[in-house]
Amino acid sequence: MGKIKFEELGLKESILRSIQDLNFEHPSDIQEKSIPVSLQGKDIIGQAQTGTGKTLAFGAPILSNMGPKGGAVQTLILAPTRELAIQVSEELAKLCTYEKYKILAIYGGQSFDRQLSALKRGVDIVVGTPGRILDHINRRTLKLQNVKFLVLDEADEMLNMGFIEDIESILSNLSEERQTLLFSATMPRQIKNLAKNYMKKDLEHIAIAKKTMTVSKIHQSYFLVNPSNKFDSLCRILDVDNPTSAIMFCKTKKGVDEVVDALHGKGYSVEGMHGDMKQSQRMNTLAKFKNGSLHFLVATDVAARGIDVENVTHVINYDLPQDIESYVHRIGRTGRANREGIAYNFATRKEVSFIRQIENHTKGKIVKKEIPTLADIFSAKSGSLLENIANVLQEDAYATFMPMAKELITEYGAEDVAASLLKLMFDKELNCNYTEETQEVEDTTRLFLSVGKLDRARAKDIIEFLDNTAGVKGKEIGRIDILDKFSFVDVPANLVDTILSNSKGKMFGKRKVNIEISNKRR
Fold it and tell me: Could you please report the per-residue DSSP string of 271-336?
């Protein structure tokens, strides 16, 4: 049975033409399930992960049902961030190429007078952040009495950012006859309350199962790293893969700045995005990343919300996120529109257990990869070096250098001269001066402990036990696996003797603990 096509969903002909121009043939799951219901005028809660085409899911049916262009706002779309508001407005503009509805993005950091001037000229669709929308409402510069369609995009993120009161204030200014479309990756209690209080009773909840999350076309891998050589690892990977467009994620604003500065120092085309940067700077950076003049973007989770850039080949989690939902949001920046993508993760030994949690949650496989060696880098670069030389030979544009070549060959021999020139070219291709052929990851040993779930042992209890008996701190302990009658703990190899000498035979609750170096067949 073949996939359904957009032509079968009941959309307006002019909107279908725009979709065809965008080279979309088959709708995603959320689009297929929500568009026919939305066209009927029903309220919808659409639960789907990022990167599944939610803008088209709500935009196409709304544009198909909107009335004649009259200058009064018919559609209001709320988004959590400026970047997402701009992104949604740009996507809607592509969808209504043949309808010419006027769309305005409203957000903080942009001139209020400029927004007011556009509103006075007449706007059909407003996309904005809750704070700035409410500001216009309070100043009576945004009139919403004719709004027939309301969209809450990334609703869970808006609630996480503390917009609940603003959203409720905005909803109180809208007609109860409107159609409300709420899209969210998760369904926290506050969203259920919003639905109960502000949406029609016959609303439809369309949930896309998590197994369809857009990780299926994303090749996920992780690299085991030490914090001390993490940046060197990043450079090696960039030299081998040579990505054309990559987003790298850090946990903190400081981390973003440090990685950007370090990459700049190595000659990479890179800029950062985080909340402390001016809005104009963030928008300029995003524009360059979209048009391809900027190859690498380093960002925090919040700053990256709403970034929807085609052809991002790599997402690199330089720092792992705090939770699995954030991980899915991050890697959803690649593998868009049915393309394949690559997601790399840097993990210390202690963080490998989180990698396993992600695998279990997403039903995907995150493969361990070895950090590239100098031999790997040489192999990756040699092909392009030989191709460049072949192109010069074919163009026959090297006559000026022939006397120098003959002189060198006479003195040193052709092979030695060629190899020397190749080395110069290779060194120029490298962005980092690597001093080691391979990277050493801290050696760890797996210990067997004779306590488990039946002893009510928890990870924090084992950490506390090793700290109290041997002075080993939690940050030094890696993966902990607790089974019914025993447990396994990864510890640095240089601490094994300390633990065996000081912790073995000590009391854990009411039992003496036996500790041994683990037999892997256990």
Answer: EEE-TTS-HHHHHHHHHHHHHTS--EEEE-HHHHTT---TT--EEEESS--SSHHHHHHHHTTSS-
Classify residue 490 as left (phi > 0), alpha (psi -120 to 50) or beta: beta
pLDDT digits (tens, 9 = 90+) for 455-501: 999 888 999 999 999 998 877 787 788 898 999 998 888 899 999 99
318, amino acid identity: Y
Q: DSSP letter string over 1-52?
A: -PPP-GGGTT--HHHHHHHHHTT--S--HHHHHHHHHHHTT--EEEE--TTS
- Same fold flag, 6-212 and 218-369: yes
Distances (CA, A) of 446 to 290, 349, 515, 518: 46, 11, 11, 6
**Domain 6-212, CATH:** 3.40.50.300
Helix 189-198 / helix 164-171 crossing angle, nearest 10 deg: 10
Evaluate the CA torsion angle 194, 199, 201, 207 in order and state its sign: negative
Of 118, 99, 8, residue with least CA distance to 59: 99
CB 318 within 8 A of CB 250: yes
Answer yes or no: are the C-beta atoms of 343 and 220 closer than 8 Å: yes
For CA atoms 476, 478, 482, 488, the dihedral sign is: negative
Distances (CA, A) of 59 to 29, 42, 146, 387: 15, 14, 18, 46
Query: Which residues are bridge partners to 104 per DSSP?
Result: 126
pTM score:
0.52
**Tokens for 46?**
């659409």
For residues 452, 457, 458, 459, the Cα torsion angle rounded to the nearest 10 degrees is -70
Least confident stretch, 26-30, 137-141, 297-301, 431-435: 431-435
CA–CA separation, 343 and 219 (whole Å): 6
Say which CATH class 218-369 falls into: alpha beta
Find out whether 73 and 150 touch, Cβ atoms under 8 Å.
no
| CA distances from residue 204 to 35, 41, 208, 319, 413 in whole angstroms, order as listed | 12, 11, 13, 38, 78
Q: What is the domain partition of the chain in residue ranges? A: 6-212, 218-369, 374-429, 444-517
Structure confidence by residue, pLDDT tens digits, 262-284: 998 888 899 999 878 887 888 88
The architecture that CATH gives domain 444-517 is 2-Layer Sandwich (3.30)
The residues, any chain, with a CB within 8 Å of residue 11's CB and separated by 6 or more, are: 19, 35, 39, 60, 61, 64
Closest to 469 in 3D by CA, of 506, 516, 510: 506
Buried b (16+ CB within 10 A) or exposed e, 99-130: bebbbbbbbeebeeeebeebbeeebbbbbbbb
Q: What is the pLDDT of residue 267?
A: 84
